[in-house]
């Protein structure tokens, strides 16, 4: 049912890469002095396979779903907040609504499996797999067929949209629990180091979440105390969520189609983790917007070798961090395309200008 | 001649501060989950003394001047680059031109003392104190009268402009040397830890810069091996630059008029350092855009207790980092003003919602 899209790794030693570096080094600034902006410009040039890339019709995709595990009390908020926040996204009052409006990002909320039947509204795409996952403390969160279906739906959501950028965000009460379980299953990091306070659990709430996730872990992923070897898709089905699976599919399709992927926070990064286990080259197409306040995120980013743009203690989700950094990414492209060269501006070069820096 | 403007410290325990925190905590997100965006929103609300602040007519001010000390070979670039880059700023080909255009920032280049006579052009304000400072390895960089004149000019540049935000940037071949000397004179940090590679000195160039700055230091600021006590204005006159002095004046006036100040990189931060020694409350009005790749900047920010928004290895100056972060600051205000509350959006609150978080 789900056929994983092929992804071409970026050629960082290619002729184009040299051309992009040369272009950056001839601009009216000391070589490398725009730091991270230069590495972003290089990455986007390589993704688009051109010296003067353009960012076209960026798509802010927010995947929403409910989690059966929420019944075990792993969140500070009641499960109905998932559906209520979807309404808030569409009404324009949520953080992601404000940020998407500020930057002119096309915002689509995808109902990946919310426990509520929405009527059709502009900006909402209904791709509901079920009314929430099953409670993974009792059984697998989804069937293998549901998992495949969700991955495929994520692909299709991207395929059906124009442009060359996707920004990935999510909403789902209980989904930091699901992301922590996936992280523990697919990295060498211990489960305890993957679990955080989510939307803001207090000490007692955190202790309860840890106990619940240990129970889930023992049911699905531990073998006499050590980790079993779950395949990425087994882990996704047993421990994941519909919104996470759809983000995984969306990322794979976006990278296949050479679109830039802007990854929001902990849960979106967990979806990318699953995607990298299927197609490692997907990482070449990703920009990690920020390191969130959710405690497992820093270690997860380090595991992936991802270098986040911001470290602001954001922990909201919704794609808010991805939308927030959008103008920074746009700046990298503007600078690459619009800056004058030393020659064209008549600016004197370095006193030792025969030495071209090897930066960035 | 220069009368230092009065600055009112922000009242972080005021009723308004409580109102702003309450407003942020009632928005449809877990309290504190927008991290740094919430502290920015709080700061801007306090600066403007209102619950719904607005950012009006942000002024990107780039102060340019030459440095007599450049003759001693403290930069990788020849001194004529200062004037050439001013032309480039005005022609639209420099990084700051691109970023100001992207964000609709009014860009003004102030000739604070460039060694070149510009003709009048839109976007250029001529406030030239002299054709560059004197060589501070031989004598004070400027006279006390020139220093006062530059501070006053910086005040006036801000006074003459509308709006409630100033973004401070600079251009001046040799000015990381001047900033390092000011940092050493006005903080407990040793001179050697204040000196960096500027626009990209190699090892030999850095060694030469260190030797030159030690000579300057011994001439003006050391007394039998330990630091003398230079007053802030003595340090500014002996070691500073016209663009640095004007930025100091601009910051003091901006804070006096309750404008937000967005500080670019190492040199702009050195100007703020001088300002804080005159009026400590100026810091309440500052946002530090980024921690630059120039090696002294991190320690200088730590000395000031400033928490930079980005850590991207930028080291260009021109105000480029300040302009880059502009939309992030705008986001903080949009979110504060436009997000729905739990009540207005009909979203269920925390399960333990009687406990209002004390964040941010």
Describe the structure.
The structure is a homodimer of 360-residue chains. Chain A has 360 residues and is α/β, with parallel strands linked by helices. In chain A, 44% of the residues lie in helices and 10% in strands. The first copy, chain A, has 13 helices and 8 strands. Chain A has helices at 15-26, 36-48, 81-91, 95-103, 144-159, 175-186, 203-220, 232-239, 242-256, 266-278, 297-304, 320-338, 342-345, and strands at residues 59-65, 106-113, 124-126, 165-171, 222-223, 226-227, 260-263, 286-288. In chain A, the strands form 2 sheets. Chain A has a 6-stranded parallel beta sheet with strand order 3-2-1-4-7-8, sandwiched between helices. In chain A, strands 5-6 form a two-stranded antiparallel sheet. In chain A, strand 7, helix 10 (266-278) and strand 8 form a beta-alpha-beta unit. In chain A, helix 5 packs across helix 8 (232-239) and helix 5 crosses helix 9. The interface between A and B is large, with 65 and 64 residues.
